[in-house]
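sry for the spam today, last one i promise. struct tokens for design, 430 residues
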């Protein structure tokens, strides 16, 4: 039986899960592939650290050269995280003739153009199912399952931490700070949660989704991104009274005018399929011409769910390798149709959708009329409105749902109203 060597960079959560699955399913993998997969080296920073999985000590190394220089290693699995040295190691692996599997959204979202170009140049694969929505076979579904269809939009919950926090706020009435502390205590949020609750992690994933779904390379820094830390218990309750649940969504749309991408908290109708996604689960709703809507749901992170995606990538590369598909340049795994030049996104100002507005104003006669007049002057129509009784400081909350409106006129009206306001978008079409 043929044997393919695997080198793993990183033995943390996902690395340990990957080693465990490769061991537990060895017989099934061999039967499926007609070849064995052998872990030949595992790169770590600290060889003495206790690990979540048993690995023969002689396989552990702190020297990347031991992985890259081993001619028996055909597939390098990068599970270290971060941009450097992951980027340098991936490029070096490709140049050493290895194929690369990674779950590292940060390095691909920020340095993907360089990595995919190098993979295409040397004729090696870079596959990355685990980098978006953990164990859910989402990228493979977009790439293979919808290969004969045209994807026009996607919209989803791709950051489990943000969903866990918003879900806790919805269920318990807690404020953001308490819900975040609960998520940290339960292991669903990092000590520094900025990348998750600020929307940066979702923007990285949306850039990769856009690459696979729309074939465009986008700098994640150019994706309009709004986090969830300003959402209050009041907003959650007011949205619920209007029939909505607040979710942090990554949204991508493609039409004849181009591609628009954005990440922001969104009011989703209580009956919408994404409204029922609880806890740290992920779900992505995809719209394509021929199939129509399709939904991908499951655990978007965690040791074993993510390892499932990583091992399926290893198997895909191994299968293609054994079939002799990597004999020359030009094949770069999942991104064959990607454009080479980064695209300019349509500005957020072009997006037309209904809005939730919550003004805080002194409870004095005439304020409501003044706000309504400002909105009216800029062509913003109000669909529904309610007013909360004054709080101890004498201010009242005016909650409004607008009809669909473009960003520009609404922003101008809000400047003119000159009152503290929380403004959240509704799902397009609602
Ligand atoms: N955790 C998840 O649920 C999840 C889900 C989807 C995607 N991912 C992605 O999967 C990747 C791995 O995540 P993780 O949670 O498994 O990370 P982790 O637990 O922090 O593990 C990282 C591993 O990489 C090793 N490492 C880091 N820098 C290194 C360096 N310079 N040289 C050698 N080894 C180095 C560490 O070695 P030491 O142990 O010796 O320090 C550790 O074993 C990340 O890109 C992450 O975004 C994770």
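last one done:
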């Amino acid at each position: 039986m043929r044997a393919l060597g695997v080198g793993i960079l990183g033995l943390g959560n996902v690395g340990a899960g990957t080693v465990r699955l490769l061991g537990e399913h060895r017989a099934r993998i061999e039967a499926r592939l007609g070849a064995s997969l052998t872990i030949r080296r595992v790169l770590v920073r600290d060889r003495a650290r206790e690990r979540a999985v048993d690995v023969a000590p002689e396989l552990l190394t702190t020297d990347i050269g031991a992985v890259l220089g081993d001619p028996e290693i055909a597939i390098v699995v990068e599970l270290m995280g971060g941009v450097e040295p992951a980027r340098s190691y991936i490029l070096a692996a490709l140049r050493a003739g290895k194929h690369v599997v990674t779950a590292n959204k940060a390095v691909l979202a920020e340095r993907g153009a360089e990595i995919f170009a190098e993979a295409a140049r040397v004729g090696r694969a870079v596959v990355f199912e685990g980098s978006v929505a953990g164990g859910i076979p989402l990228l493979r579904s977009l790439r293979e399952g919808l290969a004969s269809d045209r994807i026009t939009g996607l919209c989803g919950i791709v950051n489990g931490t943000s969903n866990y926090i918003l879900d806790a706020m919805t269920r318990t009435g807690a404020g953001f700070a308490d819900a975040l502390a609960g998520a940290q205590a339960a292991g669903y949020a990092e000590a520094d949660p900025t990348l998750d609750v600020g929307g940066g992690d979702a923007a990285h994933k949306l850039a990769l989704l856009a690459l696979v779904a729309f074939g465009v390379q986008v700098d994640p820094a150019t994706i309009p991104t709004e986090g969830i830390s300003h959402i209050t218990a009041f907003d959650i309750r007011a949205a619920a009274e209007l029939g909505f649940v607040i979710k942090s969504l990554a949204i991508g749309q493609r039409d004849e005018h181009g591609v628009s991408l954005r990440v922001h908290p969104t009011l989703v109708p209580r009956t919408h399929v994404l409204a029922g996604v609880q806890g740290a689960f992920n779900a992505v709703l995809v719209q394509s011409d021929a199939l129509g809507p399709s939904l991908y749901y499951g655990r978007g992170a965690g040791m074993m769910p993510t390892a499932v995606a990583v091992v399926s990538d290893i198997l895909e590369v191994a299968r293609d390798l054994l079939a002799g598909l990597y004999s020359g340049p030009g094949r770069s795994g999942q991104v064959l149709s990607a454009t080479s030049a980064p695209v300019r996104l349509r500005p957020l100002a072009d997006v037309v959708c209904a809005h939730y507005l919550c003004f805080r104003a002194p409870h004095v006669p005439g304020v409501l009329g003044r706000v309504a007049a400002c909105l009216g002057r800029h062509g913003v129509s109000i669909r529904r409105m309610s007013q909360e009784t004054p709080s101890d400081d004498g201010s009242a909350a005016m909650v409004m749902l607008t009809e669909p409106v473009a960003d520009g006129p609404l922003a101008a009206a809000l400047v003119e109203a000159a009152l503290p306001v929380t403004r959240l978008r509704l799902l397009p079409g609602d």
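The two ends are 57 Å apart (CA to CA). ok im logging off now
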